Amino acid sequence: MKNIKQIMVVLLISPLLIMLFLKARAPDPITHHEILSNLYKLQSMNSEIDLLTLKLRYRLQSNYDGMVLAVKELVRLQSEIKVGENAIFHKGDKEIDQAFEQLDSAVAQKIDMIDRFKSYNAVLKNSFYYFPRLIEDIQREYPSNRTLQNNLQSLMHDLLLQHMGHSESTVLVENDIRKIEAAAYPEHLLENIQSLLQHAKYIVAYENKTTQMVQEITSITTQDLIRNLIFVYEKSFNTAFQTANYYNFIIFLAAFLLFSYAAYSFFRLRDSTKDLHDTYAQMEHQKFAMEYQANFDPLTLLPNRRLLRDRLAQEIKLANRNNLQLAVMFLDIDNFRDINDTLGHDMGDLLLKQVAQRLSGCVSEADTVARMGGDEFTILLGKVESPGSVERTAQDILHKFALPFQLGNEAAYISASIGITLYPTDSTDVDILLQNADQAMYAAKSQGRNRFSYFTAVMQEAAQRRMRLASDLRGALADHQLHVYYQPIVELATGHVYKAEALIHWQHPTRGLISPTDFIPLAEETGMIVDIGNWVFREAAQQAAQWRGSHHTDFQISVNLSPAQLHSDHHTPALWLDHLQKMGLPGQSIVVEITEGLLLDASVAVTDQLLDFRDAGIEVSLDDFGTGYSSLSYLKKFHIDYLKIDQSFLHNLAPGSDDMALCEAIIVMAHKLGLRVIAEGVENNEQRSLLAAAGCDYGQGHFFSKALPPEEFETLLQNKP
Amino acid sequence: MEFKNKFYLRLTDRTTAILLAYFGAIVLLAWVLWPEYRQPSPPKKYLADFSVSSGAISPLPDTIPDLDSRKITLGKMLFHEPRLSHDNTIACSSCHQLEHGGVDGTKLSGGIKGQLAQINTPTVYNSVFNFRQFWNGRAATLQEQVAGPIHNPVEMGSNWNEVIAKLKHDPAYVTIFNKIYSSGITPENIADSIATFVSSLITPNSRFDKFLKGDAHAITPYELSGYVNFKNYGCISCHQGINIGGNLYEKLGVMRDYFKDRGNVTDADLGHYSITGNPEDLHKFKVPSLRNIALTAPYLHDGTARNLEQVVLIMGKYQLGIAIPAEDVAKIVAFLRTLTGEYDGRPL
Question: Which value does ipTM take for this structure?
Answer without folding.
Answer: 0.87
